[in-house]
Structures are given as structure tokens and as C-alpha cells.
Design a protein that fits this description.
77% helix; 66 residues; mainly alpha
């Protein structure tokens, strides 16, 4: 049983570490986007989510350079 749960447990740990980071960048990217350009959350697709995370990453980079 431990052999089967090992990879599942590892994946859970990775997701627990990565998801909050992605959520932070998503929120930052969402706030960096002008309000009139934001899509409602219900209309976001995978490409929109990844673009928003990328926007948050770039926005944080701009803040650190100032």
C-alpha cells in the first residue's frame, strides 16, 4: 500500500507548495490588469489564466526594479 501512495503523496506535496505561489501571481496579475480589461472569473480559460499568472510575474519584476 505504501508503494502506491508514495507517488500520490509526493504529488500532493508538490501541489501544496506550487498552488499558493500560482494563486499569488494570479491575484497580482489580476490586480495589475486595468479593471475595464479584466474578464469575469467565470469566463477565464486556461490561456487566460496562464496569461494572468505571467502578468503577475512580470508586474512583480517591475516592482522589484523600482
Amino acid at each position: 500500500m505504501g508503494e502506491v501512495l508514495g507517488p500520490i503523496h509526493d504529488l500532493t506535496l508538490v501541489l501544496a507548495a506550487v498552488l499558493p505561489v500560482f494563486a499569488f501571481y494570479f491575484g497580482l496579475g489580476r490586480l495589475a490588469c486595468p479593471a475595464h480589461e479584466r474578464l469575469p472569473l467565470q469566463r477565464l480559460h486556461g490561456e487566460d489564466v496562464s496569461a494572468t499568472i505571467t502578468r503577475g510575474w512580470h508586474y512583480l519584476g517591475e516592482i522589484r526594479r523600482r
